[in-house]
Amino acid sequence: MDVIIENLPLYWEGFLRTLFLSVVSGVIALVLGTLLAAARVSPVAALRGFSTAYVEILRNTPLTIAFFFAAIVLPRLGVQFAQFEVAAIIALSTYTAAFIAEAVRSGVNSVPVGQAEAARSIGMNFGQVLNLIILPQALRTVIPPLINILIALVKNSSVAGAFFVLELFGYGRQLANANGDQVITVLLGTAFFYLLLTVPLGILASTVERKVAIAR
Amino acid sequence: MTTHVPGDALVSLNAVNKHYGQLHVLKDINLQVRKGEVVVVIGPSGSGKSTLCRAINRLETIEDGTISIDGKVLPEEGKALAQLRADVGMVFQSFNLFAHKTILENVTLGPIKVKGVAKAAADKDAMALLERVGVGHQAPKLPAQLSGGQQQRVAIARALAMKPKVMLFDEPTSALDPEMINEVLDVMVQLAKEGMTMIVVTHEMGFARKAADRVVFMADGQIVEDATPEEFFTNPKSDRAKDFLSKLLTH
Q1: Rounded-to-integer distance, Cα B101 and Cα B142, Å
Q2: pTM here?
Q3: Residue B83: its chain A contacts at CB < 8 A?
Q4: What is the DSSP letter of A82?
Q5: What ipTM score was computed for the predicted complex, to two decimals?
Q6: Which residues of A touch B107 (CB under 8 A)?
Q7: Cα separation of B31 and B13, whole Å?
Q8: Residue B237 backbone phi and psi in degrees, to 5
Q9: What would the pLDDT profile of A5-17 be if each residue is shown by its tens digit?
Q10: Is B233 exposed, middle or buried (0-12, 13-18, 19+ CB in 10 A)?
Q11: Cβ contacts of residue B250 below 8 Å, gap of 6+?
Q12: Could you tell me which of B136, B146, B78 has the C-alpha nearest to residue B107?
């Protein structure tokens, strides 16, 4: 236990870095994922095609490949980052957006088609139908799966630790190396700080699920 | 069988055709509806009458022919189509009230978002409409808290809030319990008396007798008869119509 208590500031620093990575990537992924889902249901075939290709490629390849792309391939193509964290955020948010797009799309499909027809018949355009009628209803059914995706994002952010970004897992690894005799304790401490993020998210998911269920 | 009304046709369908795969659901449909006219479309299931109704505000696309509303041909897509739809009220079999909005919001959403009416004015108009269809006291509730008949009356109010030139009703009472059918039909009869142009797909022959100016009988994707209710119910000309009417009377 001592090793955890002695290194609390380090854990805390890592915890905040992980929180930062997750929140920034999460917000970008939510926006990007929702746009991709909108493209997926749009009347424009090219947008649908792009969105489908994006989702299928990102969703079906390992996260580490996204990281290699962001951290190694992008700089070779001339995209320079001041910090590796930017690459980590790019990798995490583009990867997570694919899953969010799928969840939002399934939510959109769960809204009865009559809702869109009624909205169109009072003269709403595609954007209004989507923003005022479909997405507000879709998001309610989608919030629990979305939170699950965000929980996965928090855990996935640990991959950044392997790409020179010091976050919770990165600090945990440093500590484990420095305290070779207490590796298990160090890792348990690391796990505890992840749980500090993910368990409240899980509780939030079930609370929201109960609260926002809409009657039909 | 076509009826040509000279001049002021508000809704005009000319040589309209549509297929679902092999099925020819609309065969060379010609139909003109004048301003203020109430046209009831009846016919057996699968005769294409709902498709016809939905084609008029392009919820169903057509393959050839033209449909025009107040002289303007239905645009293919985009802004012009949305504008035209705003002038055509639609009432669905399954009500389709916006499930996440209150009754009042259901009625005000179109005027506020599509027409840019100020919220206070939209609320006032909506309350007047809800009172008119007899559900004013339900305004703050959500659709799921209302009975089917009440929901359908709200749906009529929602369509009327856009001040449409014509109202389309696609089997408005088919999803209702029998005791709720009349409350909806009463609202529709009232609307017809006030001079609203209406195209009504229904199985309610009583409504057709009471409120229709014309009855259009469809079978197998074609308009088989187009006559006054009196003429149609007492002296149908085609065998299809005779057969259809005789089946209605057996129970």
Answers
A1: 6
A2: 0.79
A3: 123
A4: S
A5: 0.89
A6: none
A7: 5
A8: -90, -40
A9: 888 888 898 899 9
A10: middle
A11: none
A12: B136
